[in-house]
Amino acid sequence: MTTCIVCRSTDVHEVAAADPLRVLQELWNVVENSEAMTVADAFAIPTQVVFRRCASCSAEFFHPTISGGTNIYSQSHGDLYTDLRWDHFQILRRLRPGDRIIDFGGGSGRFGLAASQKGCQVTLIDSYDVQPQADRGADFRLMVADLDSQADLSSVTEIFQESADWVTGFHVVEHVHEPLQLLSTMVDCLSEKGRLAVSVPNRMRFDIAYLQPLDCPPHHQSRWTSRALEKLLQGSNLFDVTIKEETIIRPRTVVLGPPRWVLSRIRSGKSAIPSPIRPWPPSRLIKGMSLLGTGTKASRSVT
Fold first, then answer.
1. Cα 11 to Cα 3: distance, rounded to the nearest angstrom
2. Which candidate, 201, 197, 177, places its Cα nearest to that of 80?
3. Cα–Cα distance between 51 and 228 in angstroms, integer?
4. What tens digit of pLDDT does each residue of 222-272 get?
5. Which of 49, 189, 232, 261 is most exposed, with the fewest beta carbons within 10 Å of its own?
């Protein structure tokens, strides 16, 4: 019986089955791995990947999982993970000099660099060496640990237990097989009343087609809504949980043309001819890339 990776409910339903070879090849073309390996060389490919959705918390996930690992991420941070994002800035403005921060899945180290420049003590933990960013003037500690390995995460807990004012994970939860396992370690690293911040891609940020290569394994193991992220944090010994949704202001336009042509242009992301009549209101809010969840570690009970 399949259980949800977030709330452990058994009310999980199969949505679709995918041909992983086609999805992987499309992702490989996006990443443009410099070693020019074929998909078959880089991954052990199952015959079928099943896409499932939990009716209780709305989390979506794939089975079996296909990890990207260093095959993708050590080659792609210049393309997939560029500058600081909205979710980074939301936390950076709340940091104080001297704050002790552990950043899980820090990738290129851009958040760690920005936090260290604010006078914070930063430890960066990721599944591969991110030393190149440190060479650009960052002052933070680096640790390599497999975020899918229970043994590695146990070692992280032993070293950093109850030591951090902030523990962060920006766009990392969707890459691991067991989000609850990772969240447990992150919370263990928090000092009493320390703050956790986790961001994930917003499932509703674009067309919800099932097989978009950047939203499938081996890149993303799961897909997230506000409800699913809230469930994850509430089930991890946190209180004062809040969820923020990134929004973007876009000009509002009126599109002219035959309905079928207009619809095809919108679906393909191509521009359409705007009406000369100025619509009102002139702008609209659309869903951005990220959901950001924060929470505070519960205090130990006093007896």
1. 7
2. 201
3. 16
4. 999 999 999 999 988 899 999 999 987 666 555 455 556 555 655 565 544
5. 261
Residues counted in the chain? 303
Residue in the structure block whose two tokens are 């986790």: 198
Burial of 93 (0-12, 13-18, 19+ CB in 10 A): exposed
Six-digit token string for 251 = 């000009």
Distance of CA 267 to the CA centre of its chain: 25
Region of 77 (left: φ > 0; alpha: ψ -120 to 50; beta: rest) is alpha
Amino acid at 17: A
Backbone angles phi and psi of 190, in degrees to 5: -80, 140
Cβ neighbours of 266 (radius 10 Å): 13
Structural domains in the chain, CATH included, are 84-246+288-297 (3.40.50.150), 248-285 (no CATH)
* Rounded-to-5 percentages of helix, strand, coil across the chain: 30, 30, 40
Which residues, in sequence order, are CB contacts of 69 under 8 Å at separation 6+? 127, 128, 218
Q: List pLDDT tens digits, range 2-24.
A: 899 999 999 999 887 766 666 66
Q: At what angle do helices 20-31 and 69-76 cross, to 10 degrees?
A: 30
Tokens matching residue 270:
């191509």
> Cβ-count burial of 39 within 10 angstroms (0-12 exposed, 13-18 middle, 19+ buried)?
buried
φ/ψ bin of 98: left (φ > 0), alpha (ψ from -120 to 50), beta (otherwise): left
